[in-house]
Amino acid sequence: MNAALSPPQLFVRTVALPGDVSGLVRHLPTDSPLAWLAGDEGIVGWGRAARLELDGDPGTAEPTDTTRFTEAARWVDGLTERSEVRDEVGRPGTGLVAFGTFAFSPASGGSSLVVPRVLLGRRDGRTWLTTVTDRPGDRTTEPPRPTSAPRPVGPVSWSRGSLTDERWMDAVADTVGRIRAGELDKAVLARDAFADAGSPIDVRTLLERLRLRFPSCFTFSVDGMVGATPELLMRREGDRLTSLVLAGTRPRGGDADSDRALAEELLASAKDVDEHRMAVDSLRTSLGPLTEELDVPERPRLLALANVQHLATPARARLSPGVSALDAVAALHPTAAVGGTPTAAAMRLIAEVEGMDRGGYAGPVGWLDGAGNAEWGIALRCARVDGARARLFAGGGIVSRSEPRSELAETESKFRVMREALTDPA
């Protein structure tokens, strides 16, 4: 059953803060911190002024059902209409802002939107504070003080997830066989693993480690989903939308020569180039009906991160009148880079052979504001943190040329992001 905390009216005020409030993560409390960061910039929030929780529908007949997005959009619209907003900054991420995470599958629960009581943001050298209350006049314009220092994670024990390595490779081999038989073109298969600490994990510790190690990624924390995603599902500012398609992966090399060789191998790989083309075609098909202009380069470029490198294609569009940010999210999810092609066939295969419920993994995560601006990424390189336990996720695209052991190695490279974040320095 869906649940909502929706006060009759919210009073929202955003003010500019003088000077530069450094270290956004340092202002977060330990309890359920909200964050969307890119390097030193972004937004963080805490407290709960309003909240929507959406259940999954295990009996849904359509794996691409978008009801959770339309229900969320309706809730946000209603909340916006009932809110009194005084925004003295007027930038994306000011005024009424909701952080959100959506389940990968419509059959899964865990989709939610949260409006924080307090939000602190920084962008292009400007810093702002937003407070949300249930009564007029009950606001503060004082910059929040730094909180206690993030705690180390402590010793961690690691355990396998839903499938053993062998069973997961068998699922990959079976999927390759079905692709070669013509059932579908591509499916993205994921794995999970578990980390158990001796005490509740301080999410702020993970955020700070991820932010520093992956400054070009989007570091996020929303309702227990924590990670650093390289994949921007969509950014909306006004009627302009940008997106970044990532598909095709190699690890980074140990030195300049091996790194260059791996990059050249990736750019020349028929398997990876074909996988990337499917993801780009999926974006064109999804966004086309929603846009008046759509610009997608013909050839991918290389995106090098700290641990892996990807084939990447940036896309730009101008949305048609009346198209909301969540309309675009609903149309884009799941991309071929996290689901497969054709979408419905790939989603059914994932549910059949993956052996687990992904929850929010590979689903949209991000934020939107009352003016229609938004940033949504895909929840990759992430973990679901619940007390002292973290559930890690990693996946890879399976096509006709895929080899099970190579795909297993790719997931191990992707697991490394959260494993290192959960490991205290010696």
Automatic annotation (TrEMBL):
Q: Does the keyword Cytoplasm apply?
A: no
Q: Where is this region: Disordered?
A: 130-160
Record keywords, A-Z: Isomerase
Q: Which InterPro entries match?
A: ADC_synthase, Anth_synth_I-like, Chorismate_C, IsoChor_synthase
Question: What's one GO MF term for it?
Answer: isochorismate synthase activity
Identify the enzyme class: isomerase
This enzyme catalyses: chorismate = isochorismate
Query: The organism sits in which domain of life?
Result: Bacteria
EC number(s) recorded for this UniProt protein: 5.4.4.2
List the Gene3D superfamilies: Anthranilate synthase
Chorismate-utilising enzyme C-terminal domain segment(s): 165-414
* Composition bias, Pro residues: 143-153
Query: Which family does the UniProt entry place this protein in?
Result: Belongs to the isochorismate synthase family.
State the protein's name.
isochorismate synthase
Taxonomic source organism: Nocardiopsis sinuspersici
